[in-house]
Design goal:
222 residues, mainly alpha, 74% helix
């Protein structure tokens, strides 16, 4: 189980480029003189901007996500969806606009906090890694290198995945009428806290190179 579905990756990457730059600017600004409330404002900006980027990117591909699920679960003996265009048209005709975005709220409830935590964590991790790097003799004026950015991105991916993994895990157990929080409560009561993190390790291993390279490459290109 990955932190983001494949269908939303390219759109999400495009939507967050500005957010990455915002995090970098905030990091650099902290090295100079700043007002007492700057840190709080910077934290809020990172969280809000990351969350908005995640929500927008997920909503933009919500119809495709809905169609993907319907294609996966439809009865092979009673096929209603025969492809992307035909499938989207069928949903539009049978369910209307709301049908195209059904389930998007649940997806956003998972993606928005994940993106918010990820970009905030990247800002903090990059600052911390740079500070540690500058403690070494001869590196007092060093700047973040692609390798250091890769490390910061990997840290951000691990933190974001760990913070929101229970929501990702229960997504497959959500009942149509009761939703995510009911599913979380049911899993916790019936299987305990550890059940909320089943499959966490392989998910983290998968997200480390993706998020790390994403931050490192995008900022180098920018």
């Amino acid at each position: 189980m990955a932190s983001e579905d494949v269908v939303g990756k390219s759109t999400g990457e495009s939507a967050v480029t500005t957010i990455v730059n915002l995090a970098e600017e905030a990091k650099l600004a902290r090295e100079g003189v700043k007002a007492p409330g700057y840190a709080v404002v910077s934290i809020c900006k990172s969280l809000v901007a990351g969350g908005v980027a995640g929500g927008v990117s997920r909503t933009a591909v919500a119809p495709l996500e809905r169609l993907k699920i319907l294609l996966q679960v439809q009865n092979p003996h009673s096929i209603q969806y025969n492809g992307t265009i035909q499938g989207l048209k069928y949903i539009w005709k049978s369910e209307g606009l709301r049908g195209l975005f059904r389930g998007n709220g649940t997806n956003c409830a998972r993606i928005v906090p994940n993106s918010a935590v990820k970009f905030f964590s990247y800002e903090q991790a990059s600052s911390g890694i740079l500070w540690l790097y500058r403690q070494q003799s001869g590196n007092e004026e060093a700047q973040l290198t692609p390798l250091l950015r890769l490390g910061a991105g990997a840290c951000a991916g691990i933190i974001a995945m760990s913070a929101t993994y229970p929501m990702d895990m229960v997504r497959g157990r959500i009942t149509v009428k009761r939703g995510m929080f009911h599913a979380l409560g049911t899993v916790y009561r019936e299987e305990g806290f550890r059940a909320l993190y089943k499959g966490w390790l392989p998910s983290v291993i998968g997200v480390i190179p993706y998020v790390g390279l994403n931050f490192a490459v995008r900022i180098v290109k920018g």
